[in-house]
Design goal:
By secondary structure, the chain is of the alpha+beta class. 36% of the residues lie in helices and 13% in strands. It contains 1 helix and 6 strands. The strands form 3 sheets. A two-stranded antiparallel ribbon has the order 1-2. Strands 3-4 form a two-stranded parallel ribbon. It has a two-stranded antiparallel sheet with strand order 5-6.
């Protein structure tokens, strides 16, 4: 027990001495800075990997048919999907309704 300035007694700090608190805070600060540096490094490598994938991708001239010459290559294809039926995944039991046509904004 320690004595307070007014003569009463106070229990010791549950977190320990001020020196231990400073050391704990410093360790947490260094750990946090390390996490930020690691996250930035991973983000940069992901961006680099995406750039390499874009450079290696082959654009399809037509998405109406499968081109056997593109077998085993990274293919970039885009187009509009139209359907009057929804999609069903029997393995996971997921059902997606068909896409709506028209404007999403209503006046």
């Amino acid at each position: 027990m320690t004595t307070t300035p007014d003569g009463g007694s106070a229990a010791p700090s549950p977190s320990g001495s001020p020196k231990r608190v400073i050391i704990a805070r410093a360790v947490l600060l260094i750990f946090g800075i390390g996490c930020v540096i690691l996250a930035q490094s991973l983000a940069k490598s992901s961006a680099s990997d995406l750039g390499q994938a874009r450079a290696a991708a082959v654009a399809m001239s037509s998405i109406d048919r499968v081109d056997p010459a593109l077998e085993g290559k990274l293919v970039l294809a885009s187009g509009h999907a139209t359907s009057t039926q929804g999609a069903v995944d029997p393995v996971f039991g997921v059902t997606v309704p068909p896409p709506r046509t028209g404007s999403a904004a209503q006046g």
